Amino acid sequence: ADKTPFDPRLDHIGAEDILLFRQLVDAGRRFVWTPDAAISEIIPPSRLDSSFLRRRRYLSGQHRCLVPLLLTPPRRAEVAAHMLKGAAAVAVAGPVALIGRAFGRWPVRATGLLMSGLGKVFWWRVGAVRLYGTGHR
Questions:
Q1: Which letter does DSSP use for residue 45 in this model?
Q2: Is the separation of the CB atoms in 89 and 65 below 8 Å?
Q3: Closest CA to 109 of 82, 88, 83, 89
Q4: 38-61: per-residue pLDDT in tens?
Q5: CB 115 within 8 A of CB 131
Q6: Rounded to whole angstroms, what are the CA distances from 89 to 21, 23, 40, 79, 95?
Q7: Which of 7, 28, 13, 2 is nearest to 133 (CA)?
Q8: How far apart are CA 30 and CA 15, in angstroms?
Q9: Are 91 and 121 in contact (CB under 8 A)?
């Protein structure tokens, strides 16, 4: 049996940590901050590419809707609220991002909001974008 605390259904899209923390909070666990904790993460150059960052923003939008559905009980109202916020972000940031792109480059803020909004609206297309492997196995 798999003894990892991370949900393997999220292997390729991330958010295993978000789901775990939400489950721990629901179970009544507390978290504390310690300023002395040493954390380091090596980010490969391939993840510094703007294309990767756009895909990552899309997935982060999907995470907002997918994780509440994986909780017990599922939080459908939370998903609906995120979908509405996503639709609003697409309506507002989408034209700005597309106009910026027409003039030569994706504007960073508007494009980030657009991609996150699209992820929230199309959260159910899980697996359409994959960024990760099976690192926790």
A1: G
A2: no
A3: 89
A4: 989 898 898 888 899 999 999 999
A5: no
A6: 26, 28, 32, 15, 10
A7: 13
A8: 19
A9: no
Buried b (16+ CB within 10 A) or exposed e, 55-72: bbbbbbbbbbbbbbebee
- Please report the sign of the dihedral spanned by the C-alpha atoms of residue 93, residue 65, residue 68, residue 6: negative
pLDDT in tens, 71-102: 999 999 999 999 999 999 999 999 999 999 99
> Does residue 8 contact residue 133 with C-beta atoms inside 8 Å?
no
In which residue are the tokens 């049996």 written? 1
> Number of H helices and number of E strands within the chain?
4, 0
